[in-house]
Amino acid sequence: MATAALSPATVSLRLKPLSSTVRFLSLYHHHQPKPMKLKYPIMLAPLHQPPQPRVHFNYFNNSTAHRRCFSTVASATVSPGEVVEKSKTESIEERVGEFRKRLRIVDIKGGESEGVDRLGQTLTVKGWVRTLRIQSSVTFIEVNDGSCLSNMQCVIDSDAEGYDQVESGFIATGAAVCVQGVVVPSQGKKQKIELKIHKLVTVGKSDPSFPIQKKKVTREFLRSKAHLRPRTNTFGAVSRVRNALAYATHKFFQENGFVWIASPIITAADCEGAGEQFCVTTLIPSSKEAIDSPASSIPKTENGLIDWSQDFFGKPAFLTVSGQLNAETYATALSDVYTFGPTFRAENSNTSRHLAEFWMIEPELAFADLNDDMACATAYLQYVVKHVLENCKEDMDFFNNWIEKGIIDRLSDVVEKSFVRLTYTDAVELLLKSKKKFEFQVKWGCDFAK
């Protein structure tokens, strides 16, 4: 015979699987989830035993008789006389975080100390070799894992485990490696710490013909090596900044009560009305064997027109040029919404104004006017720019030094200065009074976007 105290139903119990089944009754106040002391103990006994005398419980005194209570029943198996133990609860964050075991370079060098606080620690770094310098006494290996722009400089000598992989040529630019060592002060000026390798493992070998070496290459060349260009500093920095912008975009709208709408990519609607759309059809053969089939194989009507009824959707379909129409319908039900996804324009333009594929952000505000629209646009722009400047400092410094001088100062002005609001007519007058020569004539009715 054993006794058990009643407790809130939210407390998890660990029941050992043994011979017989027992049921527990858990009662608690609706507004006061504290364990209650019973006037009588609950008797635990196997169900196959003869029924015990019925006991009447007085759970509530006169002052609490009017309160609501809820009950839950749990079934499990325990042996007679065994006391039930509570299991140790584990937070969801701990369970979710179990998959992330790898230490990233940004975790080591990304703080204000740039890794100095980890001196003396034994760490394991996994990444790809950027450069390899073999000297008489030691070898320097620059490893990057894509988490940040900085590399981890690793130093290995002939006594380290796995040094034979350096001698055999397995370790070269582009090779995937796993290095383990102790963090020590760096003798160089470019970094404050370096990793003195104790063990080196080649995960994926490379050879001297690896096309992305430590030298400047043109973007046109990288077009022919699209599968490797993310390993360059430029494309790596662009990817991290774009990731930060996408995160900040969702964060801004979610914090301001907007609902994200997943607008369709394939649609029969022409939102912009311009007609420059990519057609999506199954009438044209898509297999390699049927590419050279004649145009006469496309089904036609009696009038010689394309028979869209035989297409996948039964009518013409296109890649979306905008999610605006979809967002407008949801705004009439959910109030403030936004779309953020890929859009496509079939405009044969070689300028940055018209891309064939890009991601567009389209908020729709219900019960709002033009002033609300302008306030939303300026607040969003300042929010995401500030987020990038604060969280992608190393990448932005790289852009400022190597891609576009002064970009940080200009973006800082966007964040710190207020936007001026003026009418279209006032803007035209200001341009005319500037007495500057413009490529396109300034007059009332012209498109400022040009």
Share of helical residues: 10-25%
Shape: globular
Q: Total number of helical segments?
A: 10
Mean pLDDT figure: 82
**C-alpha Rg (nearest Å):** 34 Å
Write the element-wise H/E pattern from the N-terminal end onward: EEEEHHEEEHEEHHEEEEHEEHHHH
| Low-pLDDT ranges | 1-87
Largest sheet: 5 strands, mixed, barrel
Distance between the termini: 87 Å
Q: Structural class given helices, strands, pairing?
A: alpha+beta
Major sheet strand order: 5-6-7-9-8
Family: Belongs to the class-II aminoacyl-tRNA synthetase family.
Pfam families: tRNA-synt_2
Keywords: Aminoacyl-tRNA synthetase, ATP-binding, Ligase, Nucleotide-binding, Protein biosynthesis
GO molecular function: asparagine-tRNA ligase activity; ATP binding
